[in-house]
UniProtKB/TrEMBL annotation:
Membrane topology: Multi-pass membrane protein
One Pfam family cited in the UniProt record for this chain: Sugar_tr
Record's subcellular location: Membrane
Residues that span the membrane, as ranges: 37-57, 77-94, 125-147, 159-180, 318-338, 358-379, 386-405, 425-444, 456-476, 488-507
UniProt keyword annotations, A-Z: Membrane, Transmembrane, Transmembrane helix
Keyword field contains Transcription: no
Organism per entry: Bemisia tabaci (Sweetpotato whitefly)
UniProt-recorded name of the protein: Major facilitator superfamily (MFS) profile domain-containing protein
Gene3D superfamilies xref list: MFS general substrate transporter like domains
Molecular function as annotated in GO: transmembrane transporter activity
Top-level taxon of origin: Eukaryota
């Protein structure tokens, strides 16, 4: 690697000093918080139909009114157009980078809120819903990839959970505003969020891995120094060498096609480095890593569709991609997401002891507590155990809710009001869903997918996920008519039970591992009792 003099002197002569754990953690929390504000904005957009739909369904004599069918279309249109945004996001990500793309996304997001505020017909509401879907799709790939690439392995699970909590906070904010004022002013006040988001993102660095992939090694080093506690180059040299090795795993290319496929059989993520950082880059990687260096060239030019298609269809990508798709589908049909646009109506019909709008605020608060619980437990318990526990608890909540609708409620004696029982179940449901089923699929998505093709693959998973939400939301009125709300709850309980077995048997443990280590383990299979590469 060719170093500029300033970088070289910094690498060779930097004094070794210890960066405190608090300082290193703080820098990553700040970067994650800036990125997560975009998720807060998205949570507000997704939660807005919960505020709007019950108001317009009651407004039978007004200019704006929803029938049951129109409400289901409004609640689900977002998820039809999300795949277009996801696929475009994956294609744009490698060109713009995570930071710049996340900042640009706030422009159409601001437009969505203004369109909602000035809406004068159902058509304008439908158009705004479609725009929301496109915006959500655009943000999926950069937000997921950003957190995976900036965080240290010891903090990755905690920071991803912390980030996902902002979506729940977005729900809480919009539900709270909906309890205080009318829906138009909710949209107006919410339009401030994208402006704040842009200001926050402008203060944090781009991911070192993306900068490295563009040949901007010096900027990548400065970014890594910022993210590890504003430290010196010498302090991050080991991680920087691993980063350079990981980002340099590019197959040899001719002008028109691959000359040779990637051969990962002899690759090992470097565990240590010797000497100064300048010797650990480029040529140093070849000395410290046991790999077939002849299989690689550092190609940073534009790549054609054939190469991108190859990235998506190679075994190293297909296996973890399928695992992520199945996990997201199970998480989706474990219940809460298809129900969200109709929550206020469901709460009203079940005669909860608290007014329906405030019940939605309360369950969102429990969701935030679930996210906090995940942050505290994920490194101690592990993702698999946490997910299995949550799947089990969610299935029990749905079973008891279904039994309550059929007239079976626990007899607790005394002056107990049985209307508190379903509220307690909904509170538990939101807590356990946010404890694991909401954040963990996205954590795995940021960890399991190989670097080459990760942006597009993330867009594919997000697209399928939101198409599933569309199917769930759009089919809700039909299912309600045919099998009733209790039948819907039984279906979600069955899916959650399936999630227990899938998590136990299929998903890997990734705690404390670098991305290159996870990629190597994920693309191995067991043969005659031994792990071998595919």
């Amino acid at each position: 690697m060719t170093n500029k003099s300033g970088q070289k002197n910094g690498l060779a002569n930097a004094e070794c000093h210890t960066v405190s754990w608090a300082r290193e953690t703080l820098s990553q929390i700040l970067a994650t918080s800036a990125k997560s504000f975009l998720l807060l904005c998205v949570g507000m957009l997704i939660g807005f139909p919960t505020v709007l739909i019950p108001v317009l369904m009651r407004n039978k004599d007004g200019d704006l009114h929803f029938s049951g069918e129109e409400a289901s279309w409004y609640g689900s249109l977002t998820y039809i157009f999300q795949p277009a945004g996801s696929l475009l996001s994956g294609a744009m990500l490698q060109s713009f980078g995570c930071k710049k793309l996340m900042m640009l996304i706030n422009i159409p997001q601001f437009g969505c809120w203004l369109m909602l505020y000035y809406a004068s017909s159902n058509i304008s509401l439908y158009i705004s819903s479609a725009m929301v879907g496109f915006v959500i799709g655009l943000m999926e790939a950069p937000t997921i990839r950003y957190i995976g690439e900036i965080s240290h392995p010891s903090l990755r699970g905690v920071l991803t959970t912390y980030s996902s909590m902002y979506t729940t906070i977005g729900f809480l904010v919009v539900y709270f505003l909906g309890s205080l004022t009318d829906w138009r002013h909710v949209a107006l006040y919410s339009s401030l969020a994208p402006i704040i988001c842009v200001l926050a993102l402008s203060q944090v660095p781009e991911t070192p891995m993306w900068l490295m992939s563009k040949g901007r090694s010096e900027e990548a080093l400065h970014s890594l120094q910022w993210l590890r506690g504003w430290t010196t180059a010498e302090m991050v040299k080991d991680e920087f060498v691993k980063l350079e090795f990981y980002s340099s795993k590019k197959p040899r290319e001719t002008l028109h096609s691959y000359e040779k496929e990637v051969d990962t059989r002899d690759e090992k993520c470097p565990s240590n480095t010797n000497g100064s950082l300048e010797n650990g880059c480029a040529n140093g990687v070849a000395r410290n890593v046991n790999c077939k260096s002849s299989s690689y060239l550092d190609v940073r030019g534009k790549r054609g569709l054939a190469e991108k298609w190859h990235d998506l269809t190679r075994k190293e990508m297909v296996i973890p991609l399928c695992k992520c798709i199945v996990l997201h589908c199970i998480s989706l049909f474990s219940g809460l997401l298809p129900l969200r646009p109709f929550l206020v109506k469901i709460f009203s019909e079940m005669e909860l002891p608290i007014q329906a709008n405030w019940s939605s605020v309360l369950v969102s608060l429990l969701g935030i507590l679930g996210n906090i619980g995940c942050m505290l437990l994920i490194n101690r318990v592990g993702k698999k155990r946490l997910a299995i526990t949550s799947f089990g608890a969610v299935s029990l909540c749905f079973v008891f809710l279904a039994l309550h609708l059929r007239g079976y409620s626990p007899n607790l004696g005394g002056n107990y009001d049985d209307h508190w029982w379903p509220l307690s179940l909904f509170l538990s449901l939101f807590f356990f869903y946010n404890l694991a089923l909401q954040p963990i699929p996205w954590i795995y998505l940021s960890e399991l997918l190989p670097y080459k093709g990760r942006g597009v693959a993330t867009g594919i998973v997000a697209s399928l996920f939101y198409m599933g939400i569309f199917f769930g939301v759009k089919s809700y009125p039909t299912l309600l008519e045919n099998i009733g709300l209790d039948g819907i709850f039984y279906v979600y309980a069955a899916v959650s039970i399936g999630g227990i077995f899938y998590t136990w048997l299929v998903l890997p443990s990734t705690e404390g591992k670098f991305l290159c280590e996870i990629e190597t383990e994920t693309t191995q299979v067991t043969h005659n009792g031994k792990k071998v590469d595919i």
